[in-house]
Amino acid sequence: MVRDVVIVGGGTAGWMTATYLRAAFGDRLGVTLVESRAVPPIGVGEATFSTIRHFFDYLGLAEHEWMPECNATYKLAIRFENWREPGRYFYHPFERLRLADGFTMADWWLKIGSDRFDRECLVVPAICEAKRAPKNLSGELFEVSLHDGGDRHRRTTMSEQDTQFPYAYQFDASLLAKFLTGYGVQRGVKHIRDDVVDVKQDERGWISHLVTAEHGELAGDLYIDCTGFRGMLINQVLGEPFESYQQYLPNDRAVALRVAADPERDGIRPYTTATAMESGWIWTIPLFHRNGTGYVYAEDFCSAEEAERTIRRFVGPAADDVEANHIRMRVGRNRNSWVHNCVAIGLSSGFVEPLESTGIFFIHHGIEQLVKHFPDESWDPTLIRAYNRTINRCLDGVRDFLVVHYRCAARADTPYWKATKERPVPDGVAERLEVWSTRLPDETSVYPYYHGFEPYSYNVMLLGLGGHLPRAPKAALSFLDEAAARRQLAAVARQSRELVASLPSQYDYLASM
Ligand code: FAD
């Protein structure tokens, strides 16, 4: 039996893994986490994805227990600024598209919409603009009817399934790791602060034990590599190759700042912003007491000095005394994240730039899949292959989705943005783009394996980015009555107004929490 797990690394990946495994298996599985005092965690990674709530639910943690401890805020969308042209923006919310007569409102919008797709077809953009919380003060999540109300004979199709959970969180990742340390240690995670200085292998090449600087040897059955970009166990010791995505996604550097904020005065935006710049883009993530911000760029187009000047100019005087954190990013994934008795989770497994806030999503996905594929003493190779396939597909799918962001952004005004239109695209993307030039994406024409993004996200991005739109609305719509679609547009406008009027501000909600 696999009875003891040793995790190397105490960043977000290490602590999420340790606490999740204890929550899943309790005392039946021993969990030891060793983290270096000398090597700090990466210190970024603050915006998340709407599935993250399952992580906290799984650990039995309510929002009021952990959010205030981690400076956390709600995130309902990503606002993309300047991707189409300077001065223009749109939201990519956690909100599915409504339907009218079996066609999405994105399809209908191409026929009957006017200027702003996101605000005409979705309610979350209005909540974002008004800086509202997604819950009323008694803690109830906002609810809207996705039906237009006026149509008693509404026709539905198979694609009308469950709704999308409307929010994720933004939090201070170092505070979360600290919070999870307390939670994990209380529930029996053995915590060692020390450096792993050597990794020993048996005659088959499997890890037999670790050697630490001060605590001697550490042995387990399964080893989890959460050592970040260095991939100490999986790459350095086991020699698993890392497959770069850089030919498709060239951004390989970031420079981050932590900037003070005054939420009482300015309110708190319930969204992350991604602002396109000359050679990359800047994230702005509002936490309760400060904003996290950083410039993601490609070294081929911009030096580190120029990048730091750009982000400081962007932030203004608030950045004056703030130290910049320059980060080199390893973009891509391992050929396999599970090799022998070692599983890599977090940056050691794979990473794409944080444009859709997927780093912590990959961690959560890796852990959930590990629990589902948990090995017994046979270490069944089929099980390990299945795990690797699932992880690889998820990362490759997000890579493809990000490639689409750059390819479909109308912007092509600098050498960096011009190159985004000329670079090769991964297998399958060119074909999908061709299909989308005749009709908007649906479940038959997006990346076919689970990667966290549904067709609605592709629609919202294509319509917002503006550089790759279908040549014409769907022909079928000309044969249908527009009345149901028009009622949906009216329902969105009405519900948006009602929500803005009834929901508290995000600041008031969090202050009361
Ligand atoms: P790290 O934080 O690097 O932790 C590595 C750990 O390994 C440390 O504790 C270190 O002490 C330990 N260690 C290393 N060597 C040894 C050794 N020899 N012995 C003992 N311990 C050792 N994700 C999101 O979801 N949203 C975002 O908005 C987002 N933004 C990002 C922006 C940037 C620029 C980058 C680079 C990443 C971003 N991410 C984001 C990803 C996110 O930061 C990571 O997924 C997350 O922080 C997990 O990191 P990690 O735990 O894998 O690695």
Automatic annotation (TrEMBL):
Alphabetical list of InterPro entries matching this protein: FAD/NAD-bd_sf, Flavin-dep_Halogenase_NPB, Flavin_halogenase, Trp_halogen
UniProt superkingdom: Bacteria
SUPFAM superfamilies recorded: FAD/NAD(P)-binding domain
Pfam families: Trp_halogenase (PF04820)
Family: Belongs to the flavin-dependent halogenase family. Bacterial tryptophan halogenase subfamily.
Name of the protein described by the UniProt record: FAD-dependent oxidoreductase
